[in-house]
Amino acid sequence: MTDTSADTWTVAGRTFRSRLIVGTGKYKDFEQNAAAVEASGAEIVTVAVRRVNISDPKAPMLTDFIDPKKITYLPNTAGCFNAEEAIRTLRLAREAGGWDLVKLEVLGEARTLYPDMRETLKATEVLAAEGFKPMVYCADDPIAAKQLEEAGAVAIMPLGAPIGSGLGIQNKVTIRLIVEGASVPVLVDAGVGTASDASVAMELGCEGVLMNTAIAEARDPIRMARAMRLAVEAGRDAYLAGRMATRRYADPSSPLAGLI
Amino acid sequence: MAAELSLTVNGEPRRAASGSSIADLVTSLGLDPKKVAVEHNGEIAPRSTLADVPLGDGDVLEIVHFVGGG
């Protein structure tokens, strides 16, 4: 009898039940964002560090809608194109909220938002030395993934396809190789477009999936958030169940004996 | 000694009274010091020291908080 009650995962010593992490960008408004987070069952949300709007200091804040005491805020370095910017951003994030579990992303160019792996590795080393626990957005390169782990990454987060593209998991082989070689959690971050993409990531053995645009830009974000929650759970169950082997040809499901 | 300080806050010029602390500046902008993080001349200004750190003429400050992001 399968016990589905305790399938938790752990990152930097913190344990979570939900394997879906969602972003907080691109929503119509904070209400919709909060409703989507609720429907997704996510326990972790990524947030960006940006300048306060000094000309409108009383503008509503994300923290008014998504309670950082109930949901783990994961500061990210979206918009950083070199290690120094990313490190500076995370130091400020830690100062603003006390969080040391953070998401590092250092982008190489705006068109593809592909990670700059050289700067990413540099930033990972510095952040780890300063006591941060970086979950690191990276390319699907199994060697680079190992290097990041050795540098102190607490999770490896390869992209499935470019950020915001919704193209799905385009690199199943390399993600599987990363999962097989990692001693820290691997989560697909970027590229998920619809529910089946999330299931594919989980069936490859990932500990979780991070997505933003797939939910925020769906026609019905709340419904998609629910779909994603189910997809992640389904993919995880399928992985743990151990799928059947594939065959080149057919193998009938009904007996051949006793045909009329 | 200048009666007013010329500062750059979040990329914009601002003036503050001589002798102001970072905390004074933050509250004068209508912000809650507990909800933001401050970088003072390129270094993080720990929240516990905001009331003690005096501003100097020409100081550059970044005041940030969390917003929605992927």
TrEMBL record, chain A:
Alphabetized UniProt keyword annotations: Cytoplasm, Schiff base, Thiamine biosynthesis, Transferase
Top-level taxon: Bacteria
Record: residues binding 1-deoxy-D-xylulose 5-phosphate: 164, 190-191, 212-213
GO annotation (BP), single: thiamine diphosphate biosynthetic process
CDD domains: ThiG
Active site (record annotation): 103
Catalytic activity: [ThiS sulfur-carrier protein]-C-terminal-Gly-aminoethanethioate + 2-iminoacetate + 1-deoxy-D-xylulose 5-phosphate = [ThiS sulfur-carrier protein]-C-terminal Gly-Gly + 2-[(2R,5Z)-2-carboxy-4-methylthiazol-5(2H)-ylidene]ethyl phosphate + 2 H2O + H(+)
Gene Ontology molecular function: thiazole synthase activity
Cleavable signal peptide: none
InterPro entries reported in the protein's UniProt record: Aldolase_TIM (IPR013785), Thiazole_synthase_ThiG (IPR033983), ThiG (IPR008867)
Pathway: Cofactor biosynthesis; thiamine diphosphate biosynthesis
Thiazole synthase ThiG domain boundaries: 11-255
Task performed by this protein: Catalyzes the rearrangement of 1-deoxy-D-xylulose 5-phosphate (DXP) to produce the thiazole phosphate moiety of thiamine. Sulfur is provided by the thiocarboxylate moiety of the carrier protein ThiS. In vitro, sulfur can be provided by H(2)S.
Family: Belongs to the ThiG family.
HAMAP family in UniProt: ThiG
Subunit structure: Homotetramer. Forms heterodimers with either ThiH or ThiS.
Protein name (record): Thiazole synthase
Organism expressing this protein natively: Novosphingobium pentaromativorans US6-1
Lineage of origin: Bacteria, Pseudomonadati, Pseudomonadota, Alphaproteobacteria, Sphingomonadales
Automatic annotation (TrEMBL), chain B:
InterPro entries: Beta-grasp_dom_sf, Mopterin_synth/thiamin_S_b, Thi_S, ThiS/MoaD-like
Protein name (Swiss-Prot/TrEMBL): Bifunctional sulfur carrier protein/thiazole synthase protein
